[in-house]
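G., the chain you wanted modeled:
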Amino acid sequence: MAEPPAQDLLLAAAFVSDAQYNRNIPFKTSPEAVRLYYLYNHWMMRTATYFFIFLNLSLAMFEEPAVYPLPFLVTSVLEVLCLLVFLGRLAHFATVTLHSVFWKDTKNICIMVAILLSLTDLAIYGVLRVYGVRSIRWSRIVRPIFLINFAESRQIRRAFRSIRNTLPEITYVFLLFMFSLLMFSLMALKLFGERNLQTAEGLPYFRNYLEIVFDLYVLVTTANSPDVMMPAFDFSSWYALFFIAFVIVNTYIFMSLFLAVVYNNYKKHLKNEIRKLAYMKRRKMIEAFNLLKEEEGEQLVVREARWKQLVKLVAPDISNSHRELLLRISDNEQKGFVDKKSFVQLADLLNIQVVTLKLRSHPLARWVPRVYGSAASRLLRGLVRHRAFVWTYDAIILINAIFIALDEETPYISYAEWVFLALYVTEILLKVYTYEPRAFFGKTQFWNWFDTLIIFAALTATILNATLKSTTKYNSQQILDIVFILRVLRLIRIVDSIQRFRVIMNTLINIVPTMLTFGGLTLVVYCVFAIIGMELFHGKIQFFPADSNAPHALECGNPALKDSLFARGKYCKNNFNDFASSFIVLMELTVVNQWHVFANGFANVTVQPAKLYFIAFHIVMVIIIVNIFVSFILEAFFVEYSLEKSEVETAIEQKIQELGMGVQEDELQDEQLLDNMESDEHELEGEGGTKPQPKGLVFKIASKRYRTVDALLQRMFEAEIPLEDEGPSLEEILNLSPSAAIPRNPNSESVA
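Predicted structure as tokens:
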């Protein structure tokens, strides 16, 4: 059979690349459209898009009210430039995707509407500014739409979908919670309203129903506990029962119920998303196979030569040795072709981080072989490789921690720091002497780099501090602060030495990519509320230095705050006078503590309904988004701990481990070392530190700390899909619901 044409190979590579990176873009399949699709997905195009998205968001820092004000002409030109880039990116997307799909896609419509609104608002604002009329830049609130709706932000959109899908269930719980809150507020009004009680500030206590509702809502967050209870408690100890019952019902039961509902729905919708990704990846790989398939007897296969060409297109950066290893796994019996079942696994093979270590001898073994190979040298290297060496330095770190906590001015304590530094420097030198330096300082050797940088930075700072102390004209407090921080950071090293600590660290590393997704989600919410807050509260509260003689300086520039908790707490710098200050206030509101003081303060300088702004932020950020983030953390730890106990691995990973050193250097035409070299000081040594190292290339799977939780969940679900199952159609996949049964795979609903 004739080989498939080059355009088919290019199209198949696009399908495989989409499957590898879980992209779901229904692009056109013409040769020109495929080339444009490759350009659309190029990393430089994506990076440029993100750059202009964040540039557009950051313009709020330089627009009135501004942290660093720039002329209106400059900010408007930058905004128009960003909008033109967005329009060009959208036009590029329209050229590669089907028109029927493009115009039905809500996110494309949102981007076009946001561009139109932004240009219209900018023009109106500019004209009014020319005539000296002050207006509101209301379109700034739509800027986060660009971060959410471009194709590159599918993780953030998935998070928003989780929120949207969770809202119906949360709504029922929230309505029940509000009913409870209103009932308790009514009881509080009847119990305390007629007793002429006063707060510590001398204000009427629980006489206004709406004020009672707000105070009790704050009590749910524990921010005003026990202050809100004290007037009633002072009047009669029995009234404490009312507040105890309120806290149990609303704080402990309802808030826990919110978390339970969010977590349950998060898991359900996460499973549905992962299920869609798994089936979509399967269909993409089958489409690629159908483009390259040839007949071999009674079965359809992809020839070895075409398979290699495909992998070169999809993953051009991997070496021939890596590619040869992948072929050995796909063509296990070395028949010269890859069957359908093995071909479908190619995206998984490319996603597994295979690291290759080309074993080298130590430079000293080449330069001074007699000295490096002597009995004394072998004994020293054996001691460094032994576990006792690690334990000894763990003990030294703990002893160092005790000395750090002691008085620095004591001479013996000061001298001890030099001893510890000498011990740490000696440790680094011994390890570099024992292990091959390029392997010891490999790209993925985080802890080796961390130790070396921290120790030598601390050594440099300590020497500089000691030198500066010898002069009386220079205050070295800043250098001393750096030294103290570096000393404390050295204690982090012990984390990687304890197994359970390592599990937690691995989990934290695994969730970093998804934490960035929640960071984007938080950024969107913060931007929206910051812009609204600046329009509502700008200039209402001012900050004055402590020695200022300005009128009402003690009341944050506003007499309405006289004798208020806000002014007495000196919270004047917490204002919405610019974008950066607004972000700080929102961060403090997210922490929850004292948020009612902020709400009351800004309500006093505006109107009482302004408290609704702070209540809305608390509901959106704390009750919904933070609970979803907590749900993800819980799921991440469950997955990580289950893997630690059961050592869950896919069949592909097991095959690579079984091959071990099966691909030798002399069997390959290319002896190039992979860029993603990884070695470990314990893995370099062999058992007991004396096992001779083999020669050639060693292949192994990257550490678990480089696996993301989403990838692990997806593999767990794919393990339950039979290899022969092509899955439902594309339309069925896109319309899958959490409760829908999966065609030809009835067991998939049991996936966690």
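Residues 26-150 form one domain.

Shout if anything looks off.
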